[in-house]
Specification:
The complex is a heterodimer of chains A (about 190) and B (about 100).
Chain A: H1 3-9, H2 22-42, H3 46-66, H4 70-94, H5 97-100, H6 110-130, H7 147-156, H8 166-186
Helix pairs in contact in A: 2-3, 3-4
Chain B: H1 6-26, H2 30-55, H3 59-89
The chains are: A mainly alpha (about 190), B mainly alpha (about 100).
Chain lengths: ~190, ~100
Amino acid sequence: MNPGVNSALNATINPGMAPVATPFFFYLLAGLAIAGGAFVITRRNSVHSALALIVTLLSVAGLYLMLYAPFVAATQIIVYAGGIMVLFLFVIMLVNIERASKERRFNRIWPAGVAAAGALMALFVFAFVKGKALFPDRLMTLPESSNTQEIATMLYGERGSMGQYTFAFEIASLLLLVAILGAVIMTKKKM
Amino acid sequence: MVPITTIHYLVVAAALFVLGVIGVLTRRNVVIVLMSIELILNAVNLNLVAFSRMWGNLHGQVFSIFITVDAAAEAAAGLGILIAFFRNKETINVDEIDLLKW
């Protein structure tokens, strides 16, 4: 482990930076996120689904802020709400929504899908009830001011040495390049 | 009021995950299936960041950034496939996608 991570491990609770009214905002954001998710999978019009998904993504960004992850929250807003959702809206506009909004919304076998998802939820509930002792009651407070800097150290390394995730970071850029090329080639008219 | 702990965030993430699974398994519109996959990836991200705070280190946050990168790549490739498919078959319903069915 590098020294930056150790200093984060030793983070202590700093009452000056603690968020106010935590339970209220948590339940508000969690409710918004789940309501948005429910809207996404039930709306007939895909544009409405996309807007509901934006609400969910922004609420989750708020939850990240409450978890002392400002960089991840900013990434969420910029990349998801700003980039991926614009891509989704473009594609919704390209394929015709007129026909799709008049047809059946769900598969013929939708009860089986809901039953499978219910079984998954039951598994989650079982795991959380059985494994509750594994999760400490108190959350640690991460040092919010140096968060982004330490993430940068882990991704880029410092003073010429490779960070812990530098290689994975470069591979991720390669993955994005391949995805962009794939998308461009697949949407070309003539191969 | 009960203080908000890790398990609260895990429950929210589990709910989002299950909503995403329901969307993937039941909807016919491919665009909404892809959106449900984004919901699932977001639930995973929320779990990772919550655990990152629980343990007081930043590895979870770095992982969540990588998952965001994957989500972007997946959306770009998936929507590219969707447009190519729509050009051939004039439909975006999952149950009519059977070109590879023999």
